[in-house]
Design goal:
Blueprint (H helix, E strand, L loop, with lengths): L8 E3 L9 E2 L2 E7 L12 E9 L2 E8 L2 E8 L2 E9 L10 E6 L2 E6 L6 E5 L8 E6 L8 E5 L4 E5 L6 E5 L7 E6 L7 E5 L2 E5 L5 E5 L6 E6 L8 E6 L5 E6 L6 E5 L10 E3 L9 E6 L3 E6 L3 E6 L6 E6 L13 E7 L4 E6 L3 E6 L2 H6 L30 E7 L4 E8 L12 E8 L5 E9 L2
Antiparallel strand pairs: 1-3, 2-27, 3-30, 4-5, 5-6, 6-7, 8-9, 9-10, 10-11, 12-13, 13-14, 14-15, 16-17, 17-18, 18-19, 20-21, 21-22, 22-23, 24-25, 25-26, 26-27, 28-29, 29-30, 31-32, 31-33, 33-34
């Protein structure tokens, strides 16, 4: 389904996006300069990351349809394109979800449809096997409860939310129309427990295991409230975070000790949160990743009090009055320290960050400084006990010649050197004179 004659603009390690970054490494960037732009030069929208046969893939929406990619050796490889039933510059919202070897896609504008794509032919191509508006014409988002083979279509043209049985993945069967809210903007569902983001009605949590949904808890009034947009449940199911798609609102974090009495335990955002809007998030146990409108990718450390921002990479540099430009969607491949981010104007970004290391360290232990701390990929092992935001880092030869220095080092940095075999000295300073830590490391043959 690759369109003939398409021209793909590929930018690698683009320095134009590097003016506001910290602790995040840009690996690759993809865009298509042939697509027409809509209002505010919007082209792209949501990104969905998934694994298939052991490989990493991404599906990103645009005003024309769904673009499919593979992540190969930390590069974005373009694979295929599936045109949407509705293709127009005003098609600003598409969403995808994966179940088994199928990708489901919807659009929230125009005469759209539910599309189902067979992924069996990856990495060569995808095949569109279903494209119909019989079940609904438009929907805002999709969520699939893989444990129970159910698909939740939020904000459809005919109901607040529709629930489908995916026992036969190629033929969704309507189970019910949810009537417990006027509108469901998005949801996160695990094993029949659904966290529903209901706009100005707030957050509602339901159990959908029986024929009648059971309300478990709700947040219909809370501080710093806006338009309850979307959320994410941690793998442990002990934490849930959500965003309000309203200028000046912060990200909210809830510890789920008692869902019947769910409450907000922490609020946090960027330093310029009063003029910005958080959008999509991914929540792990210690880290939260946010596609922050107009501010790009932001990473927050949940182990600190208050919650601190430890990573940033701005993908939208213009200063515009419109507050919903730039970063839209985010996906994390934790085990490979990779992050996907979609930007409304600029396309798909691939980043690297020490996710696995920071998730696996509870802050109670330190790293021995006389052991090698640069691995084969030249990643600095994180040192989370060094909390300063303005540290200085250097590497010197054993004879004392300084060969590398890095300002604003926090817990991790990419060493942009192919170091020769030998013994080296590293040092971390709080300022020009105050040494916090030093040690040796050895690069072997």
């Amino acid at each position: 389904m690759k369109p003939a004659g398409i021209v793909i603009g590929l930018l690698i390690f683009s320095l134009s996006f590097a003016q506001d970054m910290k602790n995040i490494l840009l690996l690759d960037h993809w865009t298509d300069t042939t697509l027409l732009t809509g209002p505010e030069d919007v082209i792209f929208n949501e990104v969905t990351g998934f694994e298939f046969n052991g490989d990493h893939y991404a599906a990103m929406g645009s005003n024309n349809g769904t673009h499919i990619f593979q992540i190969v050796y930390e590069k974005i490889v373009y694979i295929d394109f599936v045109p949407g039933k509705f293709q127009n510059v005003v098609a600003e919202n598409r969403d995808c979800a994966v179940y088994k070897n199928y990708l489901y896609a919807v659009c929230d504008e125009g005469l759209s449809s539910l599309q189902i794509m067979d992924l069996s032919f990856l990495p060569d191509s995808v095949s569109l096997i279903y494209d119909s508006n019989t079940l609904f014409t438009t929907a805002h988002t999709l969520c699939i409860d893989t444990l129970n083979a159910k698909m939740y279509a939020c904000g459809t043209n005919s109901s607040a939310m529709k629930i489908f049985d995916l026992t036969n993945p190629e033929n969704p069967v309507l189970l019910s129309d949810f009537t417990g809210a006027a509108y469901v903007h998005d949801c996160h569902v695990v094993n029949d427990t659904a966290f529903l983001n209901c706009g100005f009605e707030g957050l509602k949590v339901y159990n959908f295991s029986g024929p009648v949904p059971v309300l478990l808890g709700m947040l219909d009034f809370y501080a710093n409230q806006g338009y309850n947009h979307s959320g994410y449940l941690a793998t442990s199911r002990k934490q849930y975070a959500f965003t309000d798609e309203t200028e000046g609102t912060k990200i909210k974090l809830c510890y789920l000790d008692n869902i019947a009495d769910i409450k907000i335990d922490a609020e946090f955002g960027t330093s310029d949160f009063a003029n910005k809007i958080p959008h999509e998030i991914v929540l792990l146990e210690n880290l939260l990743f946010c596609a922050y409108y107009n501010e790009g990718l932001r990473i927050f450390d949940l182990t600190t009090s208050p919650v601190s921002q430890i990573g940033s990479y701005d993908t939208f540099l213009p200063d515009t009055d419109f507050k919903m430009n730039g970063a839209w969607g985010v996906h994390v491949f934790k085990e490979d320290n990779l992050i996907l981010l979609s930007d409304r104007q600029s396309g798909l970004f691939l980043f690297k960050f020490p996710i696995k290391e920071l998730e696996g360290n509870d802050g109670s232990s330190t790293f021995i400084t006389n052991t090698p701390f640069i691995d084969g990929d030249r990643l600095l092992i994180p040192k989370p006990y060094l909390k300063s935001d303005n540290l200085y880092f250097s590497i010197s030869t054993i004879s004392g010649a300084r060969i590398y220095e890095q300002e604003n080092y926090l817990n991790w940095v990419e060493i942009p050197l192919n170091l020769a075999s030998g013994t080296y000295i590293y040092a971390i300073f709080a300022d020009e004179k105050t040494l916090l830590e030093s040690g040796k490391f050895i690069i072997g043959n």
